[in-house]
DNA sequence: TTGGAGTCAATAGG
DNA sequence: CCTATTGACTCCAA
């Protein structure tokens, strides 16, 4: 693998190794690209030069993920193409993943090889305008197939999908040669014998998320013990709490990256004035949505669960007149000393929250930034602790 | 094992 | 239909 041929960009030639694939038009501008309505194919990369997509990713120069997603979004909306079709036929990803990717692209240097793949595919796709046409054709064909289907089978027989009988159905697992590792075919509710028991998706109530966020601010990396406590206090499964922390950390981190990109975008010589308003992304963070009255939530009551988790403070936000950064240049950073405002959470004082210093939550913009910075710092602290072979930070004196 | 990166897929809103 | 959100899961590296 240590080969890093500095070969120039790309020199498309050769053919490809992909066989199937409807639109195998690699050669000339023949817009044949005929495909059966039933040729989903998760990811037979869009035709192009010789090497496998992985190789291309490996030697791809740094790409501007933000610019790429911006362009893709533009092209898709301009042509009325949806994320689902684009994702499934061009990127080999599902709609939700595409949405996420387009909305919050991570900077190139923070992406793993795998994570870069979708961006390389997007760029390749953007290179040839004819690709848009192909997608549009595909869309038309899909609609046609859909019409036919619903016409032939009006309200009747939907055969149970449990046995996944043949029948059309889109997105079937492409047979033969489904590319290597491919997607994870997770979610195997195989242990069923009886009528499927699809476990309902867990949906955390706002109060539960609130409590978890509060816990996160105190301890981004809770110990198993803490997790157990949280789980029992919130009446959630331990795994749910663990997952929540994994996801939350990951998503907070991702927001940090976003800022990084936006910040970088505002530099350089070209003073291209962005029409958009200041980059102060709104982050509710403060969310004054206290559990309010309805403390319970969803069936299966489960009362009590009071606990220290309750936010003793009543954070309000003071959104009265605050000067909108009168500073001219847009590159001005909103705030200065962030350090002092990190860790706005007392933690320790378990009892007697009486006077409580109440989590400061003044300006929403500040709090957002602060939270992210804190997340980053907490991450570092956590690593140091690990490295030092210690557990339970307990108290931190600064 | 733990945590991070990527995703999937259900589902809430439009 | 379409898109955004998000709990859960797979894979991998430390």
Automatic annotation (TrEMBL):
Record-annotated CUT domain positions: 54-141
Lineage: Eukaryota, Metazoa, Chordata, Craniata, Vertebrata
Species the sequence originates in: Carassius auratus
Cell location: Nucleus
Full-protein positions shown: 1029 to 1426 of 1426
Keywords, alphabetical: Coiled coil, DNA-binding, Homeobox, Nucleus, Phosphoprotein, Repeat, Transcription, Transcription regulation
Polar residues composition-biased segments: 18-38
Highest taxon, organism lineage: Eukaryota
Residue ranges, compositional bias (Low complexity): 1-10, 174-195, 351-360
Region (Disordered): 1-48, 160-198, 265-338, 350-370
Family label: Belongs to the CUT homeobox family.
Record carries keyword DNA-binding: yes
Known DNA-binding region: 197-256
A GO molecular-function descriptor: RNA polymerase II transcription regulatory region sequence-specific DNA binding
Keyword Secreted: no
Domain Homeobox: residue ranges: 195-255
Cellular component, GO annotation: nucleus
Protein name: Homeobox protein cut-like
């Amino acid at each position: 693998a240590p080969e890093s041929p500095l070969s120039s960009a790309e020199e498309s030639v050769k053919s490809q190794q992909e066989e199937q694939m409807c639109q195998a038009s690699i050669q000339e501008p023949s817009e044949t690209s005929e495909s059966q309505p039933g040729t989903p194919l998760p990811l037979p990369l869009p035709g192009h030069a010789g090497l496998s997509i992985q190789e291309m990713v490996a030697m791809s120069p740094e790409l501007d993920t933000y610019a790429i997603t911006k362009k893709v979004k533009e092209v898709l909306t301009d042509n009325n193409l949806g994320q689902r079709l684009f994702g499934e036929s061009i990127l080999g990803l599902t709609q939700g993943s595409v949405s996420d990717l387009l909305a919050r692209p991570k900077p190139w240097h923070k992406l793993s090889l795998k994570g870069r793949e979708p961006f390389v595919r997007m760029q390749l796709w953007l290179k040839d305008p004819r690709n848009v046409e192909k997608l549009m054709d595909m869309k038309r064909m899909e609609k046609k197939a859909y019409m036919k289907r619903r016409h032939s089978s009006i309200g009747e027989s939907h055969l149970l999908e449990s046995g996944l009988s043949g029948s059309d159905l889109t997105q079937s697992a492409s047979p033969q040669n489904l590319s290597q590792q491919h997607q994870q075919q997770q979610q195997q509710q195989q242990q069923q014998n009886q009528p499927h028991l699809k476990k309902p998706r867990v949906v955390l109530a706002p109060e539960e998320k609130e409590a978890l966020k509060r816990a996160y601010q105190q301890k981004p990396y809770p110990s198993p013990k803490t997790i157990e406590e949280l789980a029992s206090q919130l009446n959630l499964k331990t795994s749910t709490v663990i997952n929540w922390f994994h996801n939350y950390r990951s998503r907070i981190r991702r927001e940090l990256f976003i800022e990084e990109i936006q910040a970088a975008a505002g530099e350089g010589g070209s003073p291209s004035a962005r029409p958009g308003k200041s980059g102060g992304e709104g982050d509710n963070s403060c969310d004054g949505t206290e559990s309010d009255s309805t403390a319970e939530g969803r069936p299966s009551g489960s009362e009590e669960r009071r606990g220290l988790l309750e936010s003793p403070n009543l954070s309000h936000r003071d959104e009265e007149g605050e000067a909108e950064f009168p500073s001219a240049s847009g590159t001005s950073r909103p705030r200065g000393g962030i350090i002092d405002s990190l860790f706005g959470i007392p933690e320790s004082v378990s009892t007697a929250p009486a006077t409580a210093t109440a989590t400061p939550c003044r300006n929403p913009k500040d709090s957002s930034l602060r939270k992210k910075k804190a997340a980053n710092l907490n991450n570092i602290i956590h690593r140091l602790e690990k490295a030092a072979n210690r557990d339970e930070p307990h108290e931190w004196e600064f």
